[in-house]
Specification:
The chain has five helices and no strands. It is mostly helical. The N and C termini lie far apart (about 45 Å).
Length: about 140
Amino acid sequence: MSTTVLLVLATLVYALFATFTSQAGGRLDASLSAGILNGIGGLLPLILWQAQRMSHAHLLPSRPSGLVFSVLAGVSVAVFSILLVTIYGRGGQLSFVVPAVYGGAIAITAVVGWTILGDVFSWSHLAGVAGIVVGIGLLAVPAK
């Protein structure tokens, strides 16, 4: 499967995640909701990994640093999920919350990539991130 197809699928599934999470907000305790979504989100990949292992599919070698970063990412996703469901439970609107959170995350991770991880960037990349930040600002302006 091509990277482009995978990107489209990932985007569609993430949109479903955001929509379903917004509907859980205010209908279920945020910690319980986050536990359910992270539990299922953790169980499915482990089942797939085990199936690959049993079928002798080529798996990447595992290194301790990969385990550490995976644990840190898991903690981040758990805290993020609780915060997201809490925001929706307090009346956060899907059409603002998703662009603000994910757009902000794009901007922050781009800066981290450029400054800490040494990712290469161009002026067009910088302009794109600036456009995201301006877009988030425009979304914050109340509708009249």
